[in-house]
Amino acid sequence: MxxxxxxxxxxxxxVAGEEFLQEAFQIMLEExxxxxxxxxxxxxxxxxxxxxxxxxxxxxxDTGETKTRLLERCRDIIxxxxxxxxxxxxxxxxxxxxPHALAGRMITEMLNTSQYTYEIAPVFVLMEEVVLKKLRELxxxxxxxxxxxxxGSISNMYAMNVARYHCFPDCKQKGxxxxxxxxxxxxxxxxxxxxxxxAFLGIGTDNIYLVAVDxxxxxxxxxxxxxxxxxxxxxxFPFFVNATCGTTVLGAFDPLHAIADVCARHKIWLHVxxxxxxxxxxxxxxxHLLDGIERADSVAWNPHKMLMTGLQCSAFLLRDSSGxxxxxxxxxxxxxxxxxxxxxxxxxxxDQTIQCGRKIDCFKLWLMWKANGTGGLEERVDRAFAFTRxxxxxxxKRKGFQLVVEPEFINLCFWYVPPGLQGQEGCTDYYAxxxxxxxxxxxxxxxxxxxxxxxxxxxxxxxxFRQVVTNPAVTREDLDFFLxxxxxxxxxx
Length: 493
Prior knowledge:
One of its GO terms (molecular function) is pyridoxal phosphate binding. By secondary structure, the chain is of the alpha/beta class. It has 3 domains: 3-34 and 45-80, no CATH class; 114-359, Type I PLP-dependent aspartate aminotransferase-like (Major domain) (Aspartate Aminotransferase, domain 2); 371-489, Aspartate Aminotransferase, domain 1 (Alpha-Beta Complex), CATH 3.90.1150. 41% of the residues lie in helices and 13% in strands. Helix 5 (99-111) packs antiparallel against helix 13 (362-397) and helix 10 (221-233) packs parallel to helix 11.
């Protein structure tokens, strides 16, 4: 067919495409949502990599496949994926499924727009400002700035970059060559993104001063003071302190008021990584855990975790309202940010980020918030704390279960000591053997498909389980099953 004739007709079969979408959505609803949230179904249908590759036939080919075959593939992909919305999925700091947030994610995928200019995303430009303002108000700021980022790690990197620019605006043009040796401070319990951010920005991981923590994993402000003095004696310029609210493993909250006092004395930027613990701000009962966060210069907060907004939804929030974020990152590309547009250019916020194309992360949170209200989200947070209190009490009653620390947040860290190790604490190989228990039980539960929970070593502590429950679909029956299943899977160890 001649080229002119080809261009006379659409290159897509819209009717066939719509039929495929209708059937694909039905599969998503049946296999992903209904079965994914059904406690009688497996959390994971485990297959070894070689077997799974054969089942899925992942190779890309020269010719397309039929609708029937493609729908079969959609079904298989859901079947062999981990069901993070399952009531017995406890493996990550996110779980569960909010239907309104899911609808928001699907709508933004369908619209396929980018959050950089008002002309291409008018609704979402306005919406993002509303959502960010609400998050800032919960922190305690009347003014400020911010943006949504592709993950909490990037939010922490933004904080480090903005803090550096705030101290040395010339760094944007002249680079690190024009700067003194910079020093950043964070605790031993910080998220690994602080080290990654320092490496990415050219600050260097050797220039991160690690601050000691107490037995609960909280930063010790007196040691922060010592580390700052040490950095100054080594001719470094202290520019950035990272405090953590909700450490990844133990769930500790750093003492923000005391840390803010240190930062104020030394005139150092204070960033709070509240990616995990920030959602406690919504709860009147638990927001005291973040007392002092209003004194921070910047905050990272991930609603996709405790609030169940869905990946990804990560906010970087800034107390500054002078346009610091824009000045730090803008490049003024004229093909996007023309100066002679017919509307107010202040609504084109895309130049304040390090990205060009940026997904719409505000809508799923906005729609979920509209559906539940702040009160409904508060109940969700309080329920997560109630889950942890219940499990903590049950663990204390059961033989063979031992807390690593008394939980402050919703991270429940514990060892399971199987019958074969009970009473053997005095043996020289006790801890070596105990460290092997969690990995074996984890393997058994995954191959059985009954549940998922994470484990890790921590400092001089051997492997222990870290259980986190955020999914409001979970009931007391699921929590009892969790403890019973660990006992069952480890009874012969």
